[in-house]
């Protein structure tokens, strides 16, 4: 290939690279907010077979996703309330908040009574229903009991409108009546442990996952917090909300990107300078890597429209593997000395690079088979990036490396030769089998200590400070946990409510046993028409004899006009779900109604408290149309299944590589070429066992890459040594250089703040190190390949 042809190809490749990079830059920066996805839910796979369950998961996750929930605490009652007012005022002045609620609006009792007052003769609590069903029910005694009830702190119904207290009892069981928060001085206040707690909520004017919204909202809150702590000593602010977790995840990812990117870049740069003793190879190696990263980013944005946190950090680590291809070409140039020809050098490394690329892409392709959006994006990112980096070696570097270069640092070559000799010598002849057996015996105890952990919460670490504050806020406010809920389905709204009532009967039994704090469901606020009709029939036994009922009320001292008004309201009308959903009172609870479609209607019931997965699942057992949806548990189970499949995939990948190596190296030599990555995987598993690391899906996915990367090193050594017979150790020096660059990038992931990437990085750190040290053994006793 002539120099002119090489330069023409390089020019075309450079133009294509610039266009791809420009497209990537526009996709990344030219469409508004940075498309970096910090929402954990978006990274998770769909796990529910029922699409409506997945829709419900997303609805609950984002129902309050753009809202801050804040609690102001102070031992001094007045100071806590004043601090809450000051906080609300400070936040309301910031445009980033669409609404801030501190003080309650002017309160009208009718807002709570109106949706129910006209339907009072159709609504009964379980206790009143049971009492009215008794044949010897004494209306006069019930009335006397009502008149002697203590002063009510909740929503009170005028005595004349509800003389027997049936509606009052009904309202006392509603969610707003059971809340630990009570109106006090126009604020929502709870008293806990001699501390006054005041609720403040702030709704963001934008998405919690928008970087600009996060920055402005958290900045405004920080300034307001400093103000109230200064003006009202002893004040403490608790917070929870998606924006805090998203900001923490983004900050952690940015730290990881900077750590992995900068440390690996500096480390790789120093290594390349030390080995090739010139800045030009360094710049060209990074140019090849930059081409890969640009292509990977562009393709990922085109396919997915956004970049996940996991991919962001993983992309910084890809630097160490993408640079391998340019290192092999640069090593071939350095080893050729004055006889260097760019075209001939390319032909020399072509087979090794293509074989290495194929084994790497196989590992990433298997990674992409997992139905997990973040892992699929990582696979697409790696496949496109590695392919582009390799292609740049074929099309770009030859035109830029026409002249010979200095040989590799002699000290490195001599050191690599000595290490190769030390590592290869025990692997010759019968000693090799003995050493392999010894390694397996050392590994055996580690394997026996291996265990698994598929908990999805290990995917991304949640700051302990935030989870502690969220738990405290749940305790103070009574807010439930939306990660578990029941999906109730029926052919129409009536059947759906009936099935919800059957579920709530079982949940009430758990509450009575102290195993559940409560639940939140529509049937508790709007009973089915069937239940309302039964309740109405019980009351009809009294109202069918108006003269007797009038006498009971008159004997108790009720005025005639009040009695007339009360009797005239009978029979009233049943409460309809559609009408109730239109009232302001239903606003906080509308998310519980999924609506009706051609397949039927659906509602959600939220258990409150920690009853345990088994008890919650048992409550739904045998109830038609009722399904417990537990997204974390579902994803964890999916991780477990695919972790189980991963060992089969790993074995399949090994079997797929065997015929390729057999074709290239012959069937007798192929097992020895494959032995380093296979033994590297075995030793990595043993090391993880000794370290007490529970295996996750991410450990197994990393082992896929250990197989690919380790096979690369074996290929580089077997393909390259015939061309460096006059410089023993030079080829192993380039393999060590590739391994060190990978350790500087992938290995740094073991320090990531994201547990998933930490598992990934630790596995690669161990696997790459073991494989690089085992590679010389695969050449022990070999003749130079022709």
Summed up:
Helices cover 62% and strands 9% of the residues. It is of the alpha+beta class and 786 residues long. Among the domains are: 3-32 and 247-448 and 668-779, Multidrug efflux transporter AcrB transmembrane domain (Multidrug efflux transporter AcrB transmembrane fold, Up-down Bundle); 66-103 and 186-240, Alpha-Beta Plaits (2-Layer Sandwich), CATH 3.30.70.
**CATH-derived topology of the domain at 3-32 and 247-448 and 668-779:** Multidrug efflux transporter AcrB transmembrane fold
Q: What Rg is obtained from the alpha carbons, in whole angstroms?
A: 35 Å
Name of the top-level CATH class of the domain at 3-32 and 247-448 and 668-779: Mainly Alpha
Give the distance, in angstroms, between the N- and C-terminal Cα atoms.
23 Å
Q: Name the overall outline.
A: elongated
Low-confidence stretches: none
> Major sheet, described briefly?
6 strands, antiparallel
* Count of DSSP strands: 13
Which class of secondary structure composition applies to the elements?
alpha+beta
Mean pLDDT: 84
Question: What does it look like?
Answer:
It is elongated and about 120 Å long. Strands 2, 3, 4, 5, 6 and 7 form a six-stranded antiparallel beta sheet that branches. Strands 9, 10, 11, 12 and 13 form a five-stranded antiparallel beta sheet that branches. It is an alpha+beta fold and 786 residues long. The model has no long low-confidence stretch (mean pLDDT 84). It is 62% helix and 9% strand.
């Amino acid at each position: 290939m002539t120099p002119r042809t090489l330069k023409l190809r390089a020019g075309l490749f450079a133009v294509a690279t610039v266009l791809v990079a420009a497209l990537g830059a526009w996709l990344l920066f030219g469409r508004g907010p940075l498309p970096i996805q910090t929402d954990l839910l978006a990274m998770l796979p769909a796990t529910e077979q029922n699409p409506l369950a997945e829709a419900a998961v997303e609805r609950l996750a984002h129902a309050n996703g753009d809202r801050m929930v804040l609690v102001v605490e102070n031992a001094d009652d007045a100071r806590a309330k004043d601090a809450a007012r000051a906080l609300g005022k400070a936040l309301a002045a910031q445009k980033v908040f669409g609404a801030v609620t501190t003080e309650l609006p002017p309160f009208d009792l009718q807002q709570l009574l109106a949706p129910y007052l006209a339907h009072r003769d159709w609504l009964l609590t379980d206790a009143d229903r049971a009492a009215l069903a008794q044949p010897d029910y004494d209306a006069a005694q019930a009335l006397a009991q009502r008149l002697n009830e203590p002063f009510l702190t909740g929503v009170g119904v005028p005595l004349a409108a509800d003389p027997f207290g049936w509606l009052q009892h009904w309202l006392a069981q509603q969610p707003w009546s059971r809340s630990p928060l009570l109106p006090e001085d126009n604020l929502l206040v709870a008293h806990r442990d001699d501390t006054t707690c005041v609720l403040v909520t702030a709704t963001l004017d934008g998405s919690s996952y928008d970087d600009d919204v996060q920055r402005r909202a958290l900045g405004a809150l920080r300034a307001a917090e400093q103000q109230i702590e200064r003006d009202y000593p002893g004040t403490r602010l608790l917070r929870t909300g998606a924006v805090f977790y998203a900001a923490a995840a983004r900050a952690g990812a940015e730290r990881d990107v900077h750590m992995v990117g900068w440390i690996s870049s500096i480390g790789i740069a120093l290594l390349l300078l030390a080995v090739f003793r010139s800045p030009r190879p360094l710049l060209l190696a990074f140019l090849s890597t930059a081409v890969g990263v640009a292509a990977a980013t562009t393709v990922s944005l085109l396919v997915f429209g956004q970049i996940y946190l996991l991919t962001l950090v993983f992309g910084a680590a890809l630097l160490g593997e993408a640079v391998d291809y340019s290192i092999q070409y640069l090593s071939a140039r350095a080893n050729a000395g004055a006889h260097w020809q760019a075209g001939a050098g390319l032909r020399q490394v072509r087979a090794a690079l293509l074989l290495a690329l194929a084994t790497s892409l196989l590992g990433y392709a298997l990674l992409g088979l997992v139905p997990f959006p973040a892992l699929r994006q990582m696979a697409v990112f790696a496949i496109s990036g590695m392919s582009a980096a390799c292609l740049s070696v074929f099309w770009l570097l030859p035109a830029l490396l026409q002249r010979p270069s200095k040989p590799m640092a002699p000290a490195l070559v001599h050191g690599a030769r000595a290490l190769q000799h030390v590592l290869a010598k025990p692997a010759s002849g019968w000693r090799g089998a003995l050493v392999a057996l010894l390694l397996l015996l050392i590994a055996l105890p580690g394997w026996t200590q291996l265990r698994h952990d598929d908990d999805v919460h290990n995917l991304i670490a949640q700051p302990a400070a935030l989870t502690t504050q969220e738990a405290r806020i749940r305790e103070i406010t009574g807010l439930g946990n939306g990660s578990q809920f029941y999906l109730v389905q029926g052919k129409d709204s009536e059947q759906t409510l009936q099935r919800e009532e059957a579920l709530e009967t079982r949940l009430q039994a758990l509450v009575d046993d102290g195993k559940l704090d409560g639940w939140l469901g529509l049937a508790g606020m709007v009973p089915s028409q069937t239940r309302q009709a039964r309740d109405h029939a019980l009351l009809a036994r009294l109202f069918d004899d108006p003269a007797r009922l009038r006498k009971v009320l008159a004997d108790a001292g009720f005025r005639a006009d009040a009695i007339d008004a009360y009797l005239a309201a009978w029979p009233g009308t049943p409460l309809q779900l559609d009408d109730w959903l239109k009232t302001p009172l239903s606003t906080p609870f509308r998310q519980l109604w999924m609506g009706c479609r051609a397949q039927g209607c659906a509602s959600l019931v939220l258990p409150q408290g920690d009853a345990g997965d088994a008890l919650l699942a048992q409550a739904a057992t045998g109830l038609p149309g009722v399904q417990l949806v537990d997204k974390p548990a579902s994803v964890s189970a999916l991780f477990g299944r695919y972790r189980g499949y991963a060992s089969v995939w790993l074995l399949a990948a090994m079997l797929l590589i065997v015929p390729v190596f057999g074709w290239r190296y012959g069937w007798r030599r192929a097992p020895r070429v494959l032995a380093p990555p296979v033994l590297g995987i075995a030793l990595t598993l043993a090391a993880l066992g000794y370290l007490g690391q529970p295996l996750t899906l991410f450990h197994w996915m990393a082992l896929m890459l250990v197989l690919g990367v380790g096979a690369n090193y074996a290929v580089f050594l077997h393909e390259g040594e015939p061309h460096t017979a006059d410089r023993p150790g030079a080829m192993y020096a380039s393999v060590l250089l590739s391994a060190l660059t990978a350790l500087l990038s992938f290995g740094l992931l073991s320090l990531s703040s994201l547990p998933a990437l930490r598992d990934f990085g630790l596995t690669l750190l161990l696997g790459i190190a073991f494989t690089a040290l085992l590679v010389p053994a695969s050449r022990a006793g070999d003749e130079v390949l022709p």
